[in-house]
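Input structure tokens:
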């Protein structure tokens, strides 16, 4: 027999179940948010996460707690975030390495493209092409001319195989059709020390690692790989200005969440982080870290990451780089 009251009660219970997630998303955030950074404390990624996260926390009305989960080139933190509950209380500081190049470099690193959703870009950091101060090639044109006349004789140092400092040089070589000999180091500091000392000829490294030495005259800056000149080195031209727009590159960072996170939650995060990096004080700190705000959100940021995957996939394949 049809029970009208039982039927109405069942419908009400179903409606409550459907409404609960939406109400939870509208109330978000109700407790602190964990911001997973897949590298150690004190580095550029950590500094960016803490700087932008502090302001976003104020806008969201809840603390954002940076949680460093370093190891395996960022793969440990990436896996942890990708496997976290998609409720907005675990967010991830993704980079060009973790989201794009690591799955190409490590056979043991599964792609997180379908498991981590792009929310908001944070910063884009160019490389500076720097050469030893005693070498005769004091412009990029002279570097290219020498490299073409002496294939493989120019040594380029990097912060390690597969790093952005290595792959930016590989991209340049493929575009310009020159060949350097790669000398990897364990970090930017020993790489630039070797450059200053004349053990290597050139490097494609980040502003925080090179600017002070450029200004002190210990190394020469001949180009910037980003889309615009650096305010701190206004006389150094971009690769595009020098005729190599296809060699333009940046290392970037952004906020990601586990796939399946409610749209209302990602919208709140996107709004808060986009507003944070637009504020002059935060933007100034990003410049201090060597980058510029990366104002790409939602679908635009997702498309940007996908384009980066295609671009760097070609570079890694051509260079034959593997890390395991």
């Amino acid at each position: 027999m049809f029970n009208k009251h039982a039927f109405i009660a069942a419908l009400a219970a179903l409606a409550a179940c459907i409404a609960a997630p939406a109400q939870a998303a509208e109330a978000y955030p109700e407790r602190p948010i964990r911001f997973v950074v897949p590298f150690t404390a004190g580095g550029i990624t950590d500094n960016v996460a803490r700087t932008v996260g502090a302001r976003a926390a104020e806008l969201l009305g809840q603390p954002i707690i940076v949680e460093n989960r370093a190891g395996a080139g960022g793969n440990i933190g990436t896996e942890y975030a990708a496997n976290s509950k998609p409720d907005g209380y675990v967010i991830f500081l993704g980079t060009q390495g973790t989201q794009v190049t690591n799955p190409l470099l490590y056979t043991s690193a599964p792609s997180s493209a379908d498991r981590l959703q792009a929310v908001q870009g944070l910063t884009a950091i160019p490389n500076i092409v720097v050469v030893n101060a005693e070498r005769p090639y004091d412009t990029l044109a002279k570097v290219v001319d020498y490299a073409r006349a002496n294939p493989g004789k120019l040594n380029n140092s990097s912060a390690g195989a597969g790093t952005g400092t290595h792959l930016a040089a590989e991209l340049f070589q493929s575009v310009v059709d020159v060949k350097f000999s790669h000398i990897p180091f364990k970090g930017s500091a020993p790489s630039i020390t070797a450059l200053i000392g004349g053990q290597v000829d050139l490097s494609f490294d980040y502003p925080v690692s090179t600017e002070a030495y450029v200004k002190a005259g210990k190394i020469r800056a001949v180009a910037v790989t980003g889309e615009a000149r650096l305010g701190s080195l206004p006389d150094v031209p971009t690769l595009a200005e020098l005729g190599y727009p296809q060699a333009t590159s940046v290392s970037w960072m952004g906020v990601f969440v586990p796939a399946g996170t409610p749209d209302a939650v990602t919208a709140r995060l996107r709004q808060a982080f986009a507003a944070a990096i637009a504020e002059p004080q935060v933007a100034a700190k990003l410049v201090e870290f060597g980058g510029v705000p990366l104002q790409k959100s939602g679908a635009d940021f997702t498309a940007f990451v996908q384009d980066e995957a295609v671009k760097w996939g070609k570079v890694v394949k051509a260079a034959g780089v593997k890390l395991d």
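The first helix runs from residue 4 to 27. The chain has a mean pLDDT of 92.
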